[in-house]
Design brief:
The protein is mainly alpha-helical. 81% of the residues lie in helices and 0% in strands. The protein is elongated.
Length: 437
């Protein structure tokens, strides 16, 4: 495998010393994650006339990535489009197209993202470029996870990881492991998710990649949160927020605020938790991240219901439904229908609540989201008057709990989960001894 195909290096001998110096300074600043400074250097490199097309395209791509990480998506998209048009080099075209796919995906334009990723993958295969192949496969994996197609997601991500391992791209391997961890989390496979995130964290700490370390800490905390190990979750999320503030990683803050809000609501600190959730919502909207907006609205709705603020819950669940339809993904349809069902149940509207919970269950089964499914079935067991049918739902909920608990290797963590009041209630209703899991 040539160096060009493996790492995307271009011939530097045809670039002036001054332009190359500015470019290299930009690359160094980007590695330090000083993205404003990197943009300044890349802009300086682009100002030189007579530079080769491939050099110009690559510089635009890297400047676009810096804009993307700063949440300046219009500028990033303009640079990626310019990089796409600046050179006829197949490797560079495929690289720029994969970047455009990442941007479209982040902004919730899933159909556009899929087309870009598929085209980048075809171009990467044609050029024999494993870097592009890996990025496109990773992108398709993330996209499928967002839509709830988690089996497809794991398949794409496994192929991406193999490509990056073949060329020895450590940072890209860590990115895929993060995506695999999030996909396993979405499936309710928290032990596998933790293992993937911890492996990613080891790689990123060796690379001193602060921004992605922050993401890993946040994701590990979210796994502990899902298992009701709230103290540990809170410590990870507080550490992630501190690092995000120190690194000016504003793009990462909405997700951390969301998790801090959930942690605090679980500890019955409703006012403080809701404050963080509202900050998360504001940040998600600022950056146009509709996935984060949907997740935050879901948790805000549940927090309002638990706190007895039904008027606020009506408003947030209505907006959640709108965002879920705009995203056109079963995962978010399931969350929206679940939240509507819980709200209707809290308002005493049993028949309407059951209809919504059934709709949520259908979408969640398509999305294979075990973490939602056991809660859904438990809620159905409480909402349905027919005792025989209610018992079926309680037993299904208990089975999903068992499937969640049994793979957990850390006994302390397993006990946190099975003895958490919502989980213990499910097990007791089904006549299951938590110590036997």
């Amino acid at each position: 495998m040539s160096e060009k195909v493996a790492s995307g290096h271009f011939e530097q001998s045809s670039v002036s010393a001054a332009a190359l110096a500015a470019y290299n300074q930009g690359r160094a600043a980007a590695r330090r994650q000083d993205y404003p400074q990197a943009i300044t250097y890349f802009t300086e490199a682009l100002a030189f006339e007579g530079t080769p097309d491939l050099f110009r395209a690559r510089t635009l791509e890297y400047r676009g990535q810096c804009y993307w990480l700063l949440g300046k998506f219009n500028e990033a998209e303009a640079d990626y489009e310019a990089a796409l048009a600046a050179s006829d080099d197949m490797n560079q075209i495929a690289r720029a197209r994969a970047r455009l796919g990442e941007l479209a995906d982040f902004c919730g334009r899933y159909e556009q993202a899929e087309k870009l990723y598929q085209q980048a993958l075809a171009e990467g295969v044609q050029a024999g470029n494993l870097l592009v192949i890996g990025r496109a496969q990773r992108g398709l994996g993330v996209l499928n996870r967002r839509r709830g197609n988690t089996e497809q997601a794991v398949s794409h991500l496994t192929q991406a990881l193999a490509a990056f391992r073949q060329v020895g791209e450590a940072r890209e391997q860590a990115r895929v492991l993060t995506s695999l961890g999030r996909t396993r989390h979405a499936r309710g496979e928290y032990q596998y998710a933790l293992s993937a995130h911890q492996e990613a964290l080891m790689i990123l700490e060796s690379l001193e990649d602060r921004w992605r370390i922050i993401q890993c800490l946040n994701d590990i905390g979210e796994c502990h949160q899902a298992l009701y190990d709230i103290e540990t979750a809170l410590s990870y999320h507080e550490r992630a927020l501190q690092m995000a503030e120190e690194s000016n990683a504003n793009l990462l803050k909405p997700e951390i605020y969301r998790n801090l809000g959930v942690d605090l609501v679980e500890q019955s600190e409703y006012d403080k938790g809701i404050m963080y959730l509202q900050k998360a919502l504001e940040g998600a909207r600022q950056f146009g991240n509709r996935e984060q907006e949907a997740l935050t609205l879901y948790h805000l709705t549940r927090a309002f219901i638990r706190h007895g603020w039904e008027g606020d819950a009506v408003q947030t669940v209505s907006r959640l439904s709108e965002v879920a339809e705009a995203l056109d993904a079963d995962r978010f349809r399931a969350l929206a229908a679940f939240a509507r069902g819980e709200l209707l149940f809290a308002q005493g509207e049993r028949v309407a609540a059951i209809a919504e919970l059934n709709a949520a269950m259908l979408a969640a089964q398509t999305a294979v989201d075990r973490g939602v499914l056991w809660k859904l079935h438990a809620t159905m067991g409480n909402a349905i008057d027919d005792e025989a049918i209610a018992a079926v739902h309680r037993n299904i909920a208990a089975e999903f709990v068992r499937q969640t608990a049994e793979p957990i290797q850390d006994e302390r963590l397993k006990r946190c989960f099975v003895y958490a009041p919502p989980v213990l209630a499910v097990l007791q209703a089904a006549g299951i001894d938590p110590d036997k899991l």
